[in-house]
């Protein structure tokens, strides 16, 4: 625990007590929302995500069919190829986590990725990962080999401490690429539980964690000893709260490079559900249209204008 040199022992005592209380409340918050979040995630979000990704897969196949059979111009075919490559890449990213819905053929997606993008998906991922590691290591003044020693939440803290806003978000995106999970979330959650059991067993032997600290009336050496005990107790509750959040992110496939609050995470889930429902309606409409050549061409024209407009705005920014 970092301590301010201007802080008196009594002020430190009060701050530690307040922080412990706040972190215990945060830990209790994660435990309190679990059942409600799990129900909404399982019954509402997951079926929608599977439906959405199945539609995206159909869209990839529609675009590939249009590329070959709908008399598109050279510019239109190029744009369609970009869409096929982008959508295939996104879906294959789900496949890496064993999260592709039934009926989505990863091998076919890789074939379409190569056909329309001109390169091998696995080779591109490996190259992008190495480049991201090098970029991130240089920005954080680390050796590339050191990155593996950091957890996502530690990298999030490191980046947040050193960078702001757009620069921080850019580095977090590089971190997501550099530290792509090598195992499924289920396996990672099991490993996290095993590590936490070992940590708790060790903590159980720490006398400081079994010591009750008087709420008031301390001074001198007694106050200093109480502060040392409280600092250790704060470290423990911080570790437990971190475990609760990291486990939550693994169980519910949340961004490992983001921080979440138990007081708002259900609201965010509700918003995600609404967004996905809207996106599904849009994709269902688009998939129905794409059997008509004139409607497809009109859609491609509108999309190309929108992409060009976004690129111009980003260029001005």
β-strand number: 0
User: How much helix is in the residues?
Assistant: over 70%
* Chain-averaged pLDDT: 89
How many strands, what sense, and barrel or not for the largest sheet?
none
Q: Pairing-aware structural class of the strands and helices? A: mainly alpha
Q: How far is the N terminus from the C terminus?
A: 40 Å
Q: What is the CA-atom radius of gyration, in angstroms?
A: 25 Å
Low-confidence stretches: none
Total number of helices: 10
Shape, per Cα inertia axes: elongated
- Taken as a percent bin, the fraction of beta residues is under 5%
What is the succession of H and E elements? HHHHHHHHHH
Organism: Achromobacter arsenitoxydans SY8
Coiled coil: 266-293
Keywords: Coiled coil
Protein name: Molecular chaperone DnaJ
Structure explained in plain terms:
- The chain is mostly helical and 317 residues long.
- It has a domain at 27-77 and 264-317.
- 76% of the residues lie in helices and 0% in strands.
- The protein contains ten helices and no strands.
- The longest helix has 61 residues, at 9-69.
- The two termini are 40 Å apart.
- The mean pLDDT is 89.
